[in-house]
Specification:
single chain, mainly alpha, about 85% helix, about 170 residues
Length: about 170
């Protein structure tokens, strides 16, 4: 056996080991993803998918995640779609109108308190409560955005998988 053949055999064995490790890792990730979809609570589910599909990663990272989604069973995809659509419906889009109403309400309360030295405590209380409401509304808006794009992603993966099966 020549030197080239020995090197080729060695490289082939290393490649087989790498593929075997990748398959094991892929299987673990697939089981983890199924567990996430079936068992995590809504907030934990959103946090997981926000972390996994966060912008700014390498192209291969996203490809691996989409392939992982594509390898899910149809039942799991349907459950994920149902779950994300329920979350999307529970985060009502009418709440975005409150973003315009809250500052108007704050202006009304400012005029009502007439902002003089005796009523600063009431003004501060109103300001803090308005800021808290705005923060909560912004958090809901961000959750709705994550829910929307994950719902769309799962629908696309399911449609593609059904198309490939035909």
């Amino acid at each position: 056996m020549g030197k080239k053949n020995k090197r080729a055999i060695k490289n082939k064995r290393q490649n087989e080991k790498i593929k075997k490790l990748d398959n094991e890792n892929h299987t673990k990730k697939l089981k983890e993803l199924e567990d996430v979809i079936y068992t995590y609570r809504d907030k934990e589910l959103l946090a997981y998918f926000l972390k996994e599909f966060k912008y700014g990663q390498e192209k291969n990272y996203y490809k691996k995640n989409v392939i992982l989604l594509y390898n899910l069973e149809i039942e799991c995809l349907e459950f994920a779609i149902a779950r994300f659509s329920h979350m999307d419906n529970s985060l009502d889009p009418v709440r975005r109108n409150l973003m315009a109403i809250v500052p108007l309400f704050a202006a009304f309360l400012t005029v009502a308190f007439n902002v003089n030295e005796n009523k600063w405590s009431g003004f501060i209380f109103v300001t803090v409560s308005v800021l808290i409401v705005l923060w909560l509304l912004d958090k809901d808006r961000k959750d709705r955005i994550v829910t929307g794009y994950m719902l769309k992603t799962f629908e696309q993966v399911k449609a593609r998988k059904e198309k490939d099966e035909k």
